[in-house]
What does this fold into?
Amino acid sequence: MNTSEANAGSHQPLYIQIKTVLKKQILSGEYAPYERIPSESVLMKTFGVSRITVRQALKDLNSEGLVFTSQGKGTFANKPKATQDMQQLQGFDEAMRPKGYKTSARVVSIRERVADNNVQEKLQLGDKEKVIEVLRVRYLNKEPVSLDRSFFPVNIGEKLFGHDLTGDIFPMLEELLNLRLGEAEVSLEARPADDEVLQQLELEKGSPVMWVERLTRDQNKRPIDYEYLAIRGDSYKYCFKIER
Amino acid sequence: MNTSEANAGSHQPLYIQIKTVLKKQILSGEYAPYERIPSESVLMKTFGVSRITVRQALKDLNSEGLVFTSQGKGTFANKPKATQDMQQLQGFDEAMRPKGYKTSARVVSIRERVADNNVQEKLQLGDKEKVIEVLRVRYLNKEPVSLDRSFFPVNIGEKLFGHDLTGDIFPMLEELLNLRLGEAEVSLEARPADDEVLQQLELEKGSPVMWVERLTRDQNKRPIDYEYLAIRGDSYKYCFKIER
DNA sequence: CGTTACAACTTGTCATAACAGGTAATAACA
DNA sequence: TGTTATTACCTGTTATGACAAGTTGTAACG
It folds into this structure.
């Protein structure tokens, strides 16, 4: 492994290190969109690793859409996806305030608890490991619109005790912990509201909610928050643009 | 390769054949959600292949969300959930078929009608101008999952009369009209299903749907389709990633 | 009976090797 | 000069092998 190009002190698997180097080169424009990346055999020599290691790195980059490969031709940098369509998904306050809405939130609870299996997996925690759970109701012009249940690893969430949690949490974390947000993975589904949501959002039985699951990572890909949002269907809408 | 379990005359790579067998077993319920799948070494023996071949099949299944694996524990069947990647502008068939789902559609009606105010505005039509409305029910593995109401400007939609509308319409339009898709604007909300949707999708009263509105433009920014999709909440999920 | 150590089993990473199938450039031939 | 064949290079598939790291069950010990 050529340590001048990978992270010398890193304990990361080799293929991850190679992927990271190549990813940087692509995102920085060192490889222009559609420019050919060195062949597998060149990369083997460059990084001093076996072919399977190079291939695994390339396969992951392919999965992330950063490259495409063609048999006989080689591997090419992809055009970085337009991200502006995604920037329309913002923190609640950040999104709503500029539109003239008055936003607020009520903290129902903040507590340390054992993470269930799904949260463990998402936050990459150990068995029986604890998380900090923050449960909040969000208001839009005085109306409860969303029940948010957020899980933070303890080393992150413990910083929230004693702070005002009625606004967006991430700007606060960015400041308190000197971390930068990286990316989020989001899924959306329509569901009937369960009893807890009905009660907290003052909904009638049978009301539909948008069920959002969101995993947020920092700049170093470390998971920092996994949350479930139940948003009442009658007052909130996600809008965004897709490019082809 | 154990030909009694894979397609004997197939020229597909072995890992694809294995993936296909396992996928069928998962989607058919032979492996219940969260049930443990045989270990790699058992599958090696079962299929008479090397470990790398098994691993590649499992890795692909993992990418498709059909299994999850845990070091030291094994590989487990996931609960099947149809997902659509919002970062790509794809038709329903285009999105679902590669994932092994059987898709179909029933055309309820296709007719010329006067555009209502909202449709006029979206498609940039004049007052009282006509549109072609296509109303369809979409099926996933025989289950009705979506009621789609699409509006096309007359000069575009009139080309659809007499054609098979049970598949994706856009590839057809791209060919018939020699046009290229450009972008789409999408909004998502959770709503209760109205009576028409309840009836067409065979849902119980009070079922939530994902309500999608989508305006699609061609490469020259000309609006070509405005549609409302009512998608049942219990079998469909939107997923995407946000980069910051 | 509770705790600890160990063995067996499981997936994760990486190496070496070989053959298959596809592409592009070059050489040979008409 | 155009066409065909060949060669070098490229990715795709598959095999064998070894070690690392994690899980679970069992045996031994206090």
